[in-house]
Each structure stands twice: as C-alpha cells, then as structure tokens.
Design a protein that fits this description.
Blueprint (H helix, E strand, L loop, with lengths): L5 H13 L2 H24 L1 H4 L1 H7 L15 H9 L17 E4 L6 H14 L35 E2 L7 H6 L6 E6 L2 H11 L2 H4 L8 H5 L4 H10 L15 H5 L9 H14 L2 E4 L3 H12 L24 H11 L1 H19 L5 H21 L4 H14 L3 H6 L2 H16 L8
Parallel strand pairs: 1-2, 1-3, 3-4
Helix pairs in contact: 6-20, 14-17, 17-18
Length: 428
Amino acid sequence: MFPFTRNYFRYQYQTLIKRSPWTTKRGILVLAFIWCLPICYMISKKEELTTHLIRKRFDCRYIFTAPEATTTLNTVIRKNFTIPPQNMANISKNPQRSVIFLKTHKTGSSTVTNIMQRYSKSNKLNVVLPQCEHRFCYPEKFDEKLLFLHTKDKIYNMLFNHAVFHKEKMLKIMGPGTKIITIIREPYSQFDSAVQYLNFKKFFNLSGSMPLLDEFFKIPEEPLKSFLQSVNLLEGEGSFALAKNPNAFDLGFDVWNETPEYINKVLHSISQDFHLVMIMEYMEESLVLLKNELNWELEDVVFFVHNARKFKDKNTNDINGATKKVLNWNKLDAAIYKHFNETFWVKIKTSPPEFYTDVKTLREWNLSLVNHCTLYKTTDVSNILIKKYSKKSRAYLCTDILKEDIPFTTWFKMMRQFNSRSFFSNKW
C-alpha cells in the first residue's frame, strides 16, 4: 500500500506539533532559508529584471536622434574600442576624476548629470551628496552644512546635484586639479520651459485666461521687481528664485544688476572659473567637448534625454514679441548665452581633427542604445557598450542610463549609508 495516505500526513502533523518549540522553530528557519534563496537571486538580478518596465515607460521622442548606422559602422566600432599602442600620446593622459558640474535649470542638465552619475558609479568615485533630496537645499547658497553624511576635511571627486555656485566653498571639499563644467540654453526657450515646469501660474497667481508668458509679462515691471526682491526665495519651489536671469542665479551672480560693467565682470568671471560651458542646443558637440576636456572615453558620454517636457503648452500668441520681452527681462542671461555660444565654436575649431567623427559616432551609439534598451533590437555596438559598462560597474547600462536624477541620488545615499556602517573601506 502506498505509504503517503491521508492518515500518514495526519500522523506526521501530530508528531510535528508534539515536538519541542526549538525543533519546530529550527525547521521553520530552514524552510524560510530555502524559500528565500530564489528571492535573493532575484534581488541580485534586479536591474535586469526591471528593465522591461523601464522600456515600457520610456518615450523615444525625446532622444536626440541620428541617421541609421552606415555600412562603415563596424569599422567605427573597431576603431573606438581598440586599445591604442603604448607609445601613442593619448595613453599618457589620465582621465579627469575630480569634476564639478554646475547643474543649471531647464538646460538639459539632467541628461549630463546622468552621465556624471554613471561615470561615478563605474569608477567608484566619492560623490558630494545633498541633505535635501536631490538638491543642496536649493536655492540656498552652497555650504558644507548642506552635505549628506559629511565629515570635516573629507575630500570628494564629483559634485553634480543642483546648487547655487560658490567657487571657494565647492573647491574646498574637492580633490586637487578639479575642473568646473556647466551647461546653458538659449534664453527664450529656457524661460518658456521654466514658466511651465516651475508652475508660474500657481505661484504668480495667473488666471490662465491667456498663455502663460503673455500673462506673466502683463504684470507691471516695477511691482514684479519689488515682489521678487522682497519675497523669501526659499518659497515657491524655485519659481521666485528663477523668475529673473535663471542661469545667472544658478551661477551665483546678482540677477538684478544688468549694467554693462557688471555684465562684463560676469562674463570674465565665468571664463576664468569654468573650463567648459556647454550649449544644450548642440548636445552631441557639447559632450564630445566634455569628453576631450576630461580625457574620458566616448562610451562614457552616451546618453538618453532626461527631464524633458512630454507636453509643451502654448505659452504665447506672439512668439516674436514674447522673445523680445524675455531677452529684455533676462539681459544678463542673454549676454551669457551670446558670449559662450561664440566661444563654444572657437573651442570646436581648435579641437582634434576627429571631433566631428566622434560626434557622428556618438549619435550612432545613442541610436543603437535606444533600439537596444527600448525596442529589444540589439546591435554589435549596443552589446559592446553594455558589456563594457557591466564589467566596470556590475550594473546594467539600460537601467542606469534611464534612471532619473532622484532615484540615482537615492542610490548613492544608500551606498554612503551602507558603507559608513560597514567594516570594510568606504568607496562611496
């Protein structure tokens, strides 16, 4: 007769409950351990397992697209992923590992921040982290007291979260030879984006009876100026701080001083302090300049666009008139953009001869990653990029390249907390 009958199980159950509490608990612990094994395995593979969810929510419309890869793409791959001979000049240069990226608002800075975050993760660099979620308690001026789990005399490699620029205080906590980078945007398109993103309608009590920019500039200038100069800038979720010359504010300047003398002083100060000012409208060119400035690899600056508007409101009925009003209202920002848009192209002219080849290759690699990470279409390029990133960071490139600023900052904070309590050395 087959032994596992109903009576057999009933007997086993009665025997189990008669056992000592310790024996029963020990059995439960063993079962719990066995049950947890597959869960632990899933956690270890969490980045791969969540990728399909990220793919579904990602919208390819906001990628800087490029033409389809040409027949010479395999040659490009071999060229860019081949280790150069030891006697070549570029082998003697070390990649820059100490960088301040001054993150400005509505300028494509979240896209660049993701590059900095991935590079920091891959190379296990020490990152300056903010106490206040993903910003250094913005719009407060940068200060050591705003740092997360900071100890006196601690030195960092990377700073890239939103902060109001203060050169001396920032360099005090950074390693030697730190390079300072930022990005700006054409003033009208930046302000047009800001009034929507920062909810000017709510914080400036606009009725919504006309487009946002048109109604905002209906406010008389003197009362508006008086209000913005007297209001607490910590209120309004950044809208009051960024309502006038937003780039100049983030760069740490007096947004109300627009005299020719002060504008020249501002331009000179930025030229002296910043090693590179990127331009959002030319993202690929900017990132190749960044790669050259920091002596990074082209694979380090592949990107997806982050924090772009999914829906663009019509903010004016007269774009020419609104453009003139924005440029007149933000004279300091207009002067900054004009000057550094000119120096940007001077930098390109003095770049190595392979500059535009790198720009073309970067576009092709970005397209390959879009297809791989969102459409499941793998290519030789995407496979190589993903394998190289995985080898350095032990993470999945598609997951990290799509990760938004706040989750990535949270990840760095969790690693900092874990390592601060760990017996082992702190690499974060």
